[in-house]
Amino acid sequence: MPKFLHSMIRVTDPDATIAFLNLIGLEEVRRFDSEQGRFTLIFMAPR
Q1: Domain assignment of residue 4, yes or no
Q2: Do the domain assignments include residue 34?
Q3: Count of alpha carbons within 13 angstroms of residue 29, beta-carbon side
Q4: 3-class DSSP string for 1-47
Q5: Of 24, 29, 33, 43, which residue is least crowded by CB atoms under 10 Å?
Q6: Which domain holds residue 37?
Q7: Residue 27 confidence class, pLDDT cut points 50, 70, 90
Q8: Is 3 part of any domain?
Q9: Amino acid 10: pLDDT
Q10: For residues 44 and 27, what is the distance between their CA atoms, to the nearest angstrom?
């Protein structure tokens, strides 16, 4: 069986995206904000 290792998507509304991903069984496990404030990395994982 294949495994989904990782992926990156760019979104304009992180809160709405996280709410959708929660519905399909993923939860936020870690968040990293860049020092310059240019981006935020949000790590999601299966529950």
Answers
A1: no
A2: yes
A3: 7
A4: CCCCCCCCCCCCCHHHHHHHHHHCCEEEEEEEECCCCCCEEEEEEEC
A5: 24
A6: 14-46
A7: very high
A8: no
A9: 94
A10: 5
What is the number of structural domains in the chain?
A: 1
**Residue 43 is encoded by which pair of tokens?**
């790590």
pLDDT tens string 4-23: 778 899 999 999 999 999 99
Q: How far is CA 33 from the centre of its chain?
A: 13
Is residue 36 included in any domain, yes or no? yes
For residues 32 and 40, the answer to whether their CB atoms sit within 8 Å is yes
CA distance 32 to 41: 5
State the Cα–Cα distance between residues 21 and 26, nearest whole angstrom. Answer: 5
The CA-CA-CA angle for residues 22, 33, 42, to 5°, reads: 20
